[in-house]
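Q: Given only this backbone (264 positions), what sequence would you predict?
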């Protein structure tokens, strides 16, 4: 991909994020919003806003990048011809969305066979957008345009760690997370994709999660890596297919956390 095409796909990604914002915001904190449950024995909500946002992003792609593949949470996979696939989560954190908290986000990644190359984590209500890949690592929002860069923390005792759910995953996975968290300075919960954005922005040091799908993590991977961080699975391998994920601000703090998680 030459520089002109890189600039084009960044522009397309931003256009998709704009379209998703427009589709989602009329429903946020609306008294008429309802959620369907996608699971029988658990709670995995989906709303009209999720579907409308993915449809809006797919419409942009049909006009701007019709040869690319698409993998979206709500409408599945559409095969492409270009070798590139857009991986979309229209609302990552629908539980947060229906609760009125502004920690959900729109996730957009452009990936090839090796994983994500470009990512956007967008928070429409706050008006923050984190972009990483193809030489770009920046955030736009209420504080203006800012460069992304991860922290240099090299001790778990000085680290801030996040995960979305206190139970993390299985009992074994929770034990792995807690083995790290008890060594850290501060543990926080419930941020969904926004935690990964905070890591890329240099606010926190670690995010540890389990049970993720590809569309949950590909955009955060691209943004974090562009900012200087590292994202792997709990064994140090690629994480772009989801599962157990360790995101770290730098190689030193990643190695310390990985030493603990690899035994889980």
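A: Predicted residues:
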């Amino acid at each position: 991909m030459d520089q002109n095409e890189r600039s084009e796909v960044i522009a397309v990604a931003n256009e998709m994020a704009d379209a998703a914002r427009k589709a989602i915001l009329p429903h946020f904190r609306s008294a008429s919003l309802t959620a369907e449950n996608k699971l029988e024995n658990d709670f995995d909500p989906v709303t009209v806003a999720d579907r409308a946002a993915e449809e809006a992003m797919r419409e942009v792609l049909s006009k701007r990048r019709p040869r690319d593949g698409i993998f979206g949470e709500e409408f599945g996979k559409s095969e492409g011809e270009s070798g590139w696939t857009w991986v979309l989560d229209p609302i990552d954190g629908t539980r947060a969305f229906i609760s009125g908290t502004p920690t959900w986000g729109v996730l957009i990644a452009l990936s090839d066979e090796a994983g994500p190359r470009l990512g956007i984590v967008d928070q429409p209500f706050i008006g923050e957008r984190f972009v990483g890949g193809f030489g770009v690592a920046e955030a736009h929002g209420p504080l203006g345009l800012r460069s992304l860069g991860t922290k240099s923390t090299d001790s778990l005792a000085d680290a801030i760690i996040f995960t979305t759910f206190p139970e993390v995953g299985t009992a074994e996975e929770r034990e792995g997370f807690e083995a790290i968290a008890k060594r850290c300075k501060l543990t926080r919960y419930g941020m969904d994709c926004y935690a990964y954005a905070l890591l890329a922005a240099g606010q926190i040091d670690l995010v540890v999660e389990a049970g993720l799908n590809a569309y949950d993590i590909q955009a955060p991977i691209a943004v974090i890596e562009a900012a200087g961080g590292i994202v792997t699975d709990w064994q140090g391998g690629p994480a772009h297919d989801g599962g157990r994920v360790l995101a770290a601000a730098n190689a030193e703090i990643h190695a310390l956390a990985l030493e603990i998680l690899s035994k889980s």
